[in-house]
Every structure is written in structure tokens, then in C-alpha cells.
Amino acid sequence: MSFNLQTPIDYLKGVGPNRADLLRKELGIHTYQDLINLFPNRYIDRTQYYKINQLQRNNADVQVIGKIIKFEEIAQKRGKRLVATFQDETGTMELVWFRGQKWIRESLKLNTNYVIFGKTNWFNGKFNMPHPDIELHSEHEQNLRSAMQAIYPSTEKLSNKGISNRVMTKIMQQLFLESKGKFVETLPESLRSELRLISKSEAVFNIHFPKTPELLSKAQFRLKFEELFYIQLQLILKNLIHKSKIKGFPFETVGTYFNTFFKEHLPFELTNAQKRVLKEIRHDLGSNAQMNRLLQGDVGSGKTIVAFMSMLIALDNGFQACLMAPTEILAVQHYNGLLKLSNKLNISIKMLTGSSNTSSRKEIHEMLENGELQILIGTHAILEDKVKFKNLGLAIIDEQHRFGVAQRSKLWKKNTSPPHILVMTATPIPRTLAMSVYGDLDISLIDELPAGRKAIKTVHRYDGNRLKVFRFIRDEIAKGRQVYVVYPLIQESEKMDYKDLMDGYASIERDFPKPEYQISIVHGKMKPADKDYEMQRFINGETQIMVATTVIEVGVNVPNASVMVIESAERFGLAQLHQLRGRVGRGAEQSYCILMTGHKLSNDSKTRIETMTRTSDGFEIAEVDLRLRGPGDIMGTQQSGILTLKIADIVKDNEILQHARYHAKQILSKDPSLSAVENKSILNTYRQMSKYKNIWNYIS
Ligand code: ADP
Ligand code: MG
């Protein structure tokens, strides 16, 4: 039988059914291919030996030759631990096992030379090494030893069952023996020579058994590139297929609604970025393909007007449009804003949310189906099956990160053929991440704020300075401004947070007494109608202070509010802080953001606060956020394949990602079907990938 990478791992010599089972369950290794792709976490120097008197308290990996001179069982709180005294000519140390003691005792001999390897701890005036990698010195001498020995990912269960790193290395060696070190090339020669990538076989060998540091880094580069290249290839291909297969409604005319609005009712001059983005959207809408576009724009960059004007194009072509927002507050705000604009053009517009009553629901359902209603604004309620359109031409989702991919696709099904889709987000996703997470969408960017905006002054104040902060607030209110005071609300400690909020409210009420001051409060436990009422009072300027949890985070627009006080700011993530700050700075006045914290701050909190006071560039903030938290926590990434990256790192390998995307694009633009001879290796690899794992399952 010829060597086949899809062979189940059970067939590899030295693995067997039990180990195969463990490898499957613990590391997800089913086939030879999976094993090859088990990339080492790090490399250690196994040509160096330490004497016991050379050990240092730095918790590094060390290798020592010596003998076990005695075993001892020591009772502890739960169970017991096995301690061996290990000796060389310079001193003694201890080896400690908390598990697998019976097996250890039976298999290790006293007064025989062993080589131990592992991390040391300093405890009770002695060095000890828990669960050392241990082998007979005589056997050790016959092994391949390298200055860069791979350390593989492992789990507690694997090490308990005796699958140590040494065993993993042996299994890997066996695989190279059986394959004779030959692996099918997955990248075309032309690309490899252009980018000076080493061959697949060389890369795979050197990632597991590096011959030199240079070859190791070449192997890493090649394999990272390959991984990112195929992800990008898939995303770009998906986008291409989408465009060729899914017909959109071509909105050929830009008609009366759009033109009248543009000429007569535009409340301000559009920024260049808004104009550019509108052009991109118009181009999409006018083509035969269905639009699937992500509109990224920092808070306050003016996405709403772009959304409205896009809807006008749909209306001009006889279609309906809808706009879905993640919260009721936001839907109401959009509705109120767009109602004014729509009235000028005699456009019928209505709002549907969870709290719409039965009769208005019924009316909306009817008007949607007979086509009388042109624009529908709403929340998730729009997605309900009962909501049917006569001819939905454009669906817009605001603050996309609050919705899942599933909801996006639900909108698709609102029509016999899918409407054009525009998703908008103010969560500044770093470009690299956006490319990977939303790689199947086209991306437009509003990278410019409307003219005349003053930069928000952001400061950090400790809790102890609250009185000064209150004085400042009083001065601002005296000037006619309004103020937000925001408290964290985190699910796990909801009760305590709620108490904090109420205590805070009480103390603000004391310092800002009625009737001189009026205070609104909004939090998640309130009925929607009460929330609206409080919100509305603030919007109308009847209250000067808005005490709230993060429900006001998204999209709320009160231009007269110029101060944002964030309590316990150290507990917020950067993205949230940035969103909250975006609630102010919307009018002509100088605005302020005050980050209140306790005195004790973790390093990460310090970095977050420092970043906020230093910059207001959403993308810069997002990059810091990504560095601090990794991509796993950035919203939207959960659904993408980005977390299952095997060797590349979306943050650190940013540059490789750019190259990979560029080359994937180049290749596909010249040869979209990958039928050229030189792209045969790509086509084959791509086919293999789609055959053996569902490559689509991580993209929407
Ligand atoms: P976001 O992108 O955060 O959704 P909005 O669409 O809510 O931003 O716009 C924020 C504010 O800026 C609104 O009050 C809006 O009317 C105003 N605005 C939008 N575009 C412009 C512009 N070109 N010139 C002046 N003000 C604008
Ligand atoms: Mg908005």
C-alpha cells in the first residue's frame, strides 16, 4: 500500500487502539495528516546537561543525569505523593509524582543512571521536578538528540496514560520513517520561488526535527503562509462563487427619492468618506450580483445617513427596505431620525419591535405584504416568520457584531431571491481580522469624521477624586450640557453590579438634588416602555444626568451630552470603553470622557486606560485590544475558523496574512477555476481539504 496521509492513526506502528483513542479524544488526531499538523508549542535544547548544583530558580526546562537513591510515599490532604531522591555527584534533588505512582515505582530502578528532563521548582530549600520526562541513560544515548527538540501540545490525561513528549516524538519519528519524509507539495513552484518558500517535505521535517534554527524559521514561515493562504483562498473563492451564482436585483436607476433628498434635504454636506462609500454601495446595487457588504465606520462617523440613502435607491427601484438594530433604544432612535427625513419625501416608514402592540403589528404585516410600507425599522422582531415583505430589496443590519451569522442568513430568506445586504459596525475590527472573519463580505470603510468635531478629552481619575469630578459635572451642567454616568453590568455578578448602580444613583441624587437637577436612569431590568420614557426625557433635555448601565453603549445619539463618566472603568474592555466614549463628542461643544477607577489596577487595566487617554482612533484601540485579549474574545471571531489556526497567529503573523491574501487574490483573478497547469497543486489541495473536512462550516 502506498503511503496515504488519510490513513487512520491506529495503523501507525507503535500507536495501537488505546493510544489511537487517546490521541483522537485528547488532541483531535484522527489521521496521519492530523499528526503531521500537530505542531510543536516550543523547542528545547536537549544537548545541554545540568549538574544539580547549577540549577537556578528560574523554572526553565533542564536535563540532568543521575540516580534515584530512594523512594518515599508522603501522605497529603488528598491521596499521597511519591517522592524520589535523585542524586548526581554535585548534590540531590527530588522527583515528584502525584499520579501514576504504582507504575512509576514498578518501572524505575534504584541506583541506575537516568536522564531526567522537565521544569524545576524550588520548595522547602530544595529543587524538585514534578512528573519528569525520564529515561534510562543507556537508551537516551542511542536517541537522536537535538538542540531544538520539539515539545508537543499535551493534556493531563495524555501524560497520565504515559504518552509523554518522548512517546509523541517517537510516534512522529515513526511517521517520518513510513512516509520516507516525502509529502505532497501543496504550493505551486512559481509561488515558492517568488517567496523563497522551502518545499513541503522540508518544512514538515524541520518543524518537527529542526536541523538548524534557520531551517526551523523557514519551516515556520512556509507552513504559516500555507495555512493562511488556503483560508484566504477559500474566503475569496466563496465571495466569487457568491457573486456569480446569486443574482441580485439590479437597481439600475438612481431616481427621484435619492436625487430629491440629495439636492434638497441633505442636512449637511457628506464627508468624502461617506461619498466614497455611497459610490461603492451604488456600484454593488447596480450590478447583477447580490450585494453583501460590511460598512465599517467608527462611532459618530455617520453611517446612518449612508444607510438611509442606500434605502432610497431601493425605493427608487420600486423595492422595500428594512433596517434592523440590536436594541429597542437604538431602533427607536433610528426610527425617529429617519421618520423626519422620510416625511420630507412622503415615504411610508414604520417601526416594529418586541413591544409593538398587536394592532400595529397587524397593520405593519398587511402594509408590508401589499407593498404600501416602504421602509421598516426594527429589532429582532423583523426576523419573525410572520413578517413578510412584498419585495424586500435591501436589508441593513446596524451594529452587526451584536447579531450572529444565523440572523444575517435569516434576512436572506425574507424574499424569494435574497435582498441586498449591508451590515454596519462601529466595532473597529482590525483590518487583518476583518479580512479573515468577514472575508466573504466586501468591506467599505468610513475613515473620516464629519468636520468640526472636537476631539474628546479623556482623563483618568481615581475614585478618591470623585468630589472634584462632581464639581466639574456641575459646571458643565451649568453651561447647559448633559452628562452620562455609566456603571458596568457583567452577567456573572449581575446582582452586585445592580447594587453598585443603585448606590451610585443614590449618591448622585444626593449631590445633585431636585428640583435643580433631574436625573434619568436606564438599565436592563426595566420594562422597555419605562426605558424609553427615561431615555426620551434625556433626549428632550428634561434631565441633565443619565445614570445607566451599558445598555446605552450602542449607537445612542444625544448631541447635547458632552460628559461621559465611566465608573469602574477598569472592568470594561477596550471596545466597550471606546463605544461608550463615542456617546459624547457628537455636538459642537468640547466633550469629556472621565474614566473612574480604584487604585489597584492590573497591568492590562493600566494598558487599557492608558490607551484610552492617549488615542481616540478606533482602529488603533482595536489593535491594542487584539493584542491584549487575542482574537478569541473579539466579537464575531467565534464563528470564524480563525480560532482553529494550527500554526499561524492572526496577530503576530499579520504580515504573512497580507502576503497570503494578496497572492490568493492574484492567482484567483488570473485563474478563477484553478484549472491552469501551474495551479494543479492548489486545486488538489483545495479539493482534499473540502473532501476531508467541511471547509465551509466556519464561514457563513
Ligand atoms: P454612527 O456612524 O456612529 O452610526 P451616526 O450616523 O449616528 O453615526 O452620526 C452621528 C452624528 O453625526 C449624527 O448626529 C449625524 O446626524 C451626524 N452626521 C453624520 N454625517 C455628518 C456629516 N457629513 N456632517 C455633519 N454631521 C454629520
Ligand atoms: Mg449608528
List the helices and strands and how they pair.
Blueprint: H1 16-27, H2 32-36, E1 42-44, E2 61-75, E3 80-88, E4 91-97, H3 101-107, E5 113-119, E6 121-123, E7 126-130, E8 133-136, H4 137-142, E9 149-151, H5 156-160, H6 165-179, H7 189-195, H8 200-208, H9 213-245, H10 256-265, H11 272-286, E10 292-297, H12 303-316, E11 320-324, H13 328-344, E12 349-352, H14 358-369, E13 375-378, E14 392-397, H15 405-412, E15 420-425, H16 431-437, E16 442-446, E17 457-462, H17 466-478, E18 482-486, H18 494-511, E19 519-522, H19 528-539, E20 545-548, E21 561-566, H20 574-581, E22 592-597, H21 603-614, H22 618-629, H23 654-670, H24 680-692
Parallel strand pairs: 4-7, 10-15, 10-16, 11-13, 11-14, 12-13, 14-15, 17-22, 18-20, 18-21, 19-20, 21-22
Antiparallel strand pairs: 1-9, 2-3, 2-5, 3-4, 5-8, 6-7
Helix pairs in contact: 8-9, 9-23, 10-12, 11-12, 21-22
Bound molecules: adenosine-5'-diphosphate (ADP) and magnesium ion.
Magnesium ion is lined by residues 303-304, 398, 555.
Protein name: ATP-dependent DNA helicase RecG
EC number: 5.6.2.4
Pfam families: DEAD, Helicase_C, RecG_dom3_C, RecG_wedge
